[in-house]
Specification:
Radius of gyration: 25 Å
Number of domains: 3
CATH class of the largest domain: Alpha Beta
Strand content: 25-35%
Largest sheet: 6 strands, antiparallel
CATH topology of the largest domain: Rossmann fold
Order of helices and strands: HHEEEEEHEEHEHEEHEHEEEHEEEEE
CATH superfamily of the largest domain: Nucleotide-binding domain of ferredoxin-NADP reductase (FNR) module
Distance between the termini: 95 Å
CATH architecture of the largest domain: 3-Layer(aba) Sandwich
Length: about 425
């Protein structure tokens, strides 16, 4: 046997051993993955809406309760996001809520005529539960340049007129978008101010003894828009199971890759597929409409079960899930009883609220996502479909126009 032949057989033997080791490793990994997946399916069945509502409303109080602002802190370099620490005036301890839930505020604000009117808004709790205070983080919404859209009425009121010592009326924490109680690896995906419920989820998850991984993908334009940066980096350093990924779409000249952020560009599915290991994660997503549409749709096409995708769309954002409700083929007539307007439904309108506004019909609205109940309207006749299950439970015989479309001919008390 020549030396070259001997070398050839040595290489073949080493290669076979390497392939055998890789095959065994993959097989063990796959068995562990399937065991974890099956275990999670057993302990985390899909809950129906009634059970979610019961859990979300299990604690708290009825109606509105008076809170006082104990502290007010700016969170970002641009001073566009401000946190408010709220304590109950009655001094009674606060029961725990589910990380990811929101508070509903009722405020009296002047309208364009100078008259006072009631305005309702919802803001996510931005920290894990504390027995003595709540925290919300509010982004100031400025008027877009060269646009007829006004600045955010309530967000600017909070920034300009709510100070330590101010009192506010708010309902108990509510909402169906929150960190599920069963232990499982999670991926938190936040765009812009969508980070607020993720902060509550992150702090809540890290306070729970577990070895499951937590991945946080947080996307903003640049370092001026980051909030809680120091705290997030400190948490990542203190908790090896937390993987922090900061994504800048338009970094500043002095934003350094690897120091100030980890990825240039927006959060998208290719980034998630590149970074995430093969595990049955639960995904929690909150952010602007375009990001929500892209991420949720991409995760479903990637093969992630709908039961493992949780999201919250704020403002006018909506996310269509698969399968999409069949399109309306027969003409549907919408009648607004109070105003006497009757007109065929136009499928170009995303919701009944948008349809009503297009006809010049004034309807109270707040969150525009099914959370606050401001647009609750009585159904005189007909049926509706919801684009997504609203967090606010409307009274029997009524619906929330902001997330509803007609199923049949419809007469509304509006």
């Amino acid at each position: 046997m020549t030396s070259m032949t001997l070398l050839f057989w040595i290489v073949v033997a080493i290669s076979l051993q390497l392939l055998l080791w890789l095959g065994i490793s993959f097989w063990r990994h796959w068995l562990a993955y399937m065991a974890l997946k099956n275990r999670m399916t057993d302990v985390n069945p899909t809950l129906d809406n009634s059970s979610l509502t019961a859990r979300a409303n299990a604690s708290g109080w009825h109606g509105y309760r008076t809170f006082r602002v104990a502290r007010k802190e700016m969170e970002d370099k641009a001073e566009s996001v401000c946190s408010f620490y709220l304590v109950p005036e009655d001094g009674h301890p606060l029961e725990p809520y589910y990380p990811g839930q929101y508070l509903t505020f009722q405020l009296m604000l002047p309208n364009s005529d100078g008259e006072m009117e009631t305005v309702t808004r919802c803001y996510s709790l931005s920290d894990a539960p504390h027995p003595n205070h709540y925290r919300i983080s509010v982004k100031r919404v400025v008027a877009p340049p060269d646009s007829a859209h006004p600045a955010g009425r309530v967000s600017n009121h909070f920034h300009n007129h709510i100070h330590p010592g101010s009192t506010l009326q708010l309902r108990a924490p509510g909402g169906h978008f929150y960190l599920q109680g069963q232990p499982h690896p999670v991926v938190l995906i936040a765009g812009g101010i969508g980070i607020t419920p993720m902060l509550a989820m992150l702090n809540g998850a890290l306070a729970t003894p577990s070895d499951h991984e937590i991945w946080l993908f947080y996307g903003v334009r640049n370092s001026n828009e980051l909030i809680q940066t120091t705290q997030l980096k400190a948490l990542a350093a203190a908790h090896p199971r937390l993987q922090l990924h900061l994504c800048f779409s338009h970094p500043l000249a002095d934003d350094l890759l690897g120091r100030d952020y980890h990825h240039k560009g927006r959060i998208d599915l290719p980034l998630l597929r590149l970074e995430l290991p093969l595990k049955p994660f639960h995904f929690y997503v909150c952010g602007p409409s375009a990001m929500m549409e892209s991420i949720v749709d991409g995760l479903e096409k990637w093969g992630v079960s709908q039961a493992h995708i949780h999201f919250e769309a704020f403002g006018p954002a909506t996310v269509k899930r698969h399968p999409i409700t069949p399109a309306i083929t027969d003409p549907i007539e919408i009648t607004f009883a109070k105003t006497g307007v009757s007109i065929p439904w136009q499928t170009s309108a995303a919701t009944l609220l948008e349809f009503a506004e297009a006809q010049g019909i004034k309807v109270n609205s707040g969150c525009r996502s099914g959370s606050c109940g401001s647009c609750q309207t009585t159904i005189i006749s007909g049926e509706i479909n919801y684009l997504h299950q609203p967090d606010y439970d409307p009274q029997p015989g009524s619906c929330l126009l902001c997330c509803a479309t007609p199923k049949t001919n419809l007469t509304l008390e509006a």
